[in-house]
Amino acid sequence: MAASPLPAPSNFIRDIIVEDLKAGKHNGRVQTRFPPEPNGHLHIGHAKAICIDFGLADEFGGHTNLRFDDTNPEKEETEYVESIKADVNWLGFQWDGLFYASDYFDQLYEWAVKLIKDGKAYVDDLTAGEIRQHRGTLTEPGKNSPYRSRAVEENLNLFERMRAGEFADGSRTLRAKIDMGSPNLNMRDPVMYRILHAEHHRTGNKWCIYPMYDFAHGQSDSIERVTHSLCTLEFQDHRPLYNWFIEQLGIFPSRQIEFDRLNLTYTLLSKRKLLQLVQEGRVNGWDDPRMPTLGGIRRRGYTPEAVRNFCGAIGVSKTNGSIELAMLEHFVREDLNKRAPRVMAVLRPLKVVINNYPENQVEEMDAVNNPEEASAGSRKVPFARALYIEQDDFREEPPKGYFRLSPGREVRLRYGYLVTCTGVVKNENGEVVEVHCTYDPATRGGNTPDGRKVKSTIHWVSAANALDAEVRIYENLFTKENPNEVEDGQDFTANLNPKSLEVISNAKVEPSLAGAAAGSRYQFERLGYFCVDPDSKPDKLIFNRTVALKDTWAKVEKKQGTKS
Ligand code: ATP
Ligand code: MG
Q: How many CB atoms neighbour CB 37 within 10 A?
């Protein structure tokens, strides 16, 4: 069951399901599966597959299994199994059946024996290298292995002994006897089983032969009576083989349908490459908020709703393309705008002293928690004589079009008062370290009883009441739209963005954030959306910037070339 249905733009997979239902196929049953290999953590590309597998089944009252495709014992670990389950749940989905390809090892072995008996599989003594040489190319047919015509009895005997552990790794394989001249290389006597004396995360040392992906996947689908087996386009050329095994074995006819893999600009979606980033210490682990893993984006503050909405909007197609990272961020902003409470935080503090404000007075100002959500209510924010504002919100010599605080200029302090800058204090380097203002007591709450206009409203925190915070600002992990585009001799790490993480250690946040729990999300007014990091402690708050608000001023300034 999904937490909420996918939006329903038409897509070709949905069309196929609708047709099948109309034709009464499978008695109107829709069964899908999500089949991750537990060799790494899930990323946003998997989220797309999950939303399709679970979302479509759900739409038609069907069921979805979570199946771990665990046929590579050397790369797979229980740790990944647990993380994948947690990630699927986090996205808002609950599987019906929980299975492992390894549940079917006995059945697969029996089916292999059946194919040998039917003369459709043989034990080959060629090495992996020799098999490759015999395979031919896209333009040349392959050559039959000299072992291809072994008698059924000999094949049965050798296969049994492969299983019994008599032979060394890689010394023999079981191959399907199909067609070495097929234009589809996958049909040129594909390997079904390999010898591998390796401990499996679930079956331990029971097996020393393991089925290949192609001899496990379709049959697993079939055992689970999967009606629509949805996968990415790289498996298209495997479909004839998927069907061949099902036909030869006469088992439930699952149908494989391929869709486009998600590619995102400035992002890599490959478990292998993400693993490299972790192992080389380029990021701080799998859940580094710069990682496109579900653990990473969760820590960053992305919501499952935003990810599902994004996946619904990108839909599916039959050709691979690339989606703008900005589109994903758009959905994150859109969702957080609805739900994130607003607070005031100052990332780069500049002290402001209001000369005519009573020395020891503190007023509790009313602040709206979320203008998008009336039920979110309001809170009190302390206002006092000494405040912090953003350094960016003051210019001693304002450029054209700059309307924030500057000498002689009046601005509104949000939920506070209107203040006018009367002077500055500079350090020995001539830098402004303190700004002096006067306030108009008649403008409490930011109102102007005489109707006078101020062009700018800025945020602030009371210096004496503010809490110290560390804020981690993230930028794209890669500098290139396609991080795989590199010069000769380089790898994708050459495109890592050296400025992808900036740590601001002396930010100031309003006191209502005291004790904010890890994972809580906020909008820091005028700055963006932020999420409390799990490293956060009551005496040292740590926030991750999830995504910035659109900063219109930065754009104007850049255009004008006035930014120093
Ligand atoms: P990776 O290359 O990152 O290791 P994978 O395809 O090997 O990915 P699996 O665990 O085998 O990962 O994938 C489980 C399911 O998720 C498959 O059906 C696969 O097609 C799908 N999937 C993986 N990556 C993407 C992606 N970028 N976009 C859409 N679906 C994906
Ligand atoms: Mg894979």
A: 17
